[in-house]
């Protein structure tokens, strides 16, 4: 198995809703397990997500969990997720879907380095960066 880097997001009780949303945007297979499935069936966190993993057809992996009771939750303070490549139609579509219910902080438009780039914060407080490689920056 090769090494890979992917984001892991912590939520305050919205992990299931968020991961369902991301699956609707990006497609793929989503696997989730609750704290209750792993020995805390009667605990206050039983219905919360202990671990969720989304594997998309485009090769993206996104993992998430709900913050267990007693641990501090700081939404969006130290995470952003980058989507980049040269498939302009998909990247534009994902940007639009992720912005639904959220707020665009940098419109997706051509930048001085030749790429289209935009930033947004989705409805769950997660920051996203989208970069579409311009002709001069595409790899052959």
UniProtKB/TrEMBL annotation:
Organism classification: Bacteria, Bacillati, Actinomycetota, Actinomycetes, Micrococcales
- Known InterPro entries for this protein? Glyas_Bleomycin-R_OHBP_Dase (IPR029068), Glyas_Fos-R_dOase_dom (IPR004360), PhnB-like (IPR028973)
Species, as recorded: Luteipulveratus flavus
* One Pfam family hit: Glyoxalase
- UniProt cross-references to CDD domains, sorted A to Z: PhnB_like (cd06588)
- Full protein name: VOC family protein
Q: Where is the Glyoxalase/fosfomycin resistance/dioxygenase domain?
A: 5-128
Source domain of life is Bacteria
* SUPFAM superfamilies reported in the protein's UniProt record: Glyoxalase/Bleomycin resistance protein/Dihydroxybiphenyl dioxygenase
């Amino acid at each position: 198995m090769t090494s890979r880097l992917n984001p892991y997001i912590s939520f305050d009780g919205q992990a299931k809703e968020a991961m369902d949303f991301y699956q609707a945007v990006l497609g793929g297979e989503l696997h989730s397990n609750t704290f209750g499935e792993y020995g805390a069936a009667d605990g206050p966190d039983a219905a919360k997500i202990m671990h969720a993993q989304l594997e998309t057809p485009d090769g993206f992996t996104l993992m998430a969990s709900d913050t267990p009771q007693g641990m501090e939750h700081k939404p969006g303070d130290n995470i952003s997720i980058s989507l980049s490549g040269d498939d302009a139609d998909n990247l534009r579509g994902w940007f639009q879907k992720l912005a639904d219910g959220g707020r665009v902080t940098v419109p997706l438009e051509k930048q001085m380095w030749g790429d289209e780039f935009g930033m947004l914060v989705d409805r769950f407080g997660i920051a996203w960066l989208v970069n579409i490689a311009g002709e001069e920056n595409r790899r052959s």
